[in-house]
Design goal:
Layout (H helix, E strand, L loop, with lengths): L6 E5 L4 H11 L4 E6 L2 H13 L3 E6 L5 H15 L4 E4 L14 H11 L1 H17 L2 E6 L12 H21 L4 E6 L17 H12 L5 H13 L4 E2 L3 H12 L1 H18 L1
Helix pairs in contact: 1-2, 1-8, 3-5, 4-6, 9-10
Amino acid sequence: MQSTGQRVVITGAGSGLGRELALRYAREGARLALADINDDGLKETRQLVADAGGWSFSQRCDVRDFSQLAALAQSCEERFGGVDVLINNAGVASGGMFWDLSLEDWDFQIGINLIGVVKGCKAFMPLLLAQGNGRIINIASMAAHIQTPGMSNYNVAKAGVVALSESLLAELQPLGIKVSVVCPSFFQTNLLDSYHGPDHQSKNDMAKLLESSPISAADVADITYRESEADRFMILPHERGRLALEQKRADPQVIYQEMFKLAARRLQQG
């Protein structure tokens, strides 16, 4: 297989989609910088990358801490001489009705799923600007477009990632830096390992959505790779997600009515 030789950074690479993205790029001959707070997960991903014929180094990194992201960028500059693809993938799950969510729940969710992406972009921006090229891929969610009840802080964080990505798309295009944002629906992964919130019903509902997905994390990684390489900005891996977004754009009230029903069902379940 032809090697792309791309230098790729992936946060949240210790499991789930981050690991599958690492394997997908490894098969294309990329050199990988793998970051996560899970040391054991990083070790496993590095071994899988090596088994796939790829090369990587790993570095523990909490995306809430800008200094750790800046250190990761410095490591990439020293080891790679730059970065071709930055994938801001690290994220956590959460849920609960708005009145049950604490401000700490909001801070935790926004701090990782939104501000963590902001800090990732900020840490690597000097490298990208100095090169005058590169690609940023931000992992958001269909929750940015279709706001399911019982997930308000998650919905807001992911909508923020889309807004950030659209802003960067416009600002960076004249400078030769490309941007994509990925908005999958729920898919088969270990997202619930990071679940944070007061509502066990939300966690149970999310588990059902994860289990019922027609595609896997590996599928999402493959779609992300192919469509970002084709310079597509908005990447929507799930067909049902695409159809729901089309329906919302055509007649938002139809989607709102469905959300009313879901909220009523949640309240009946207690």
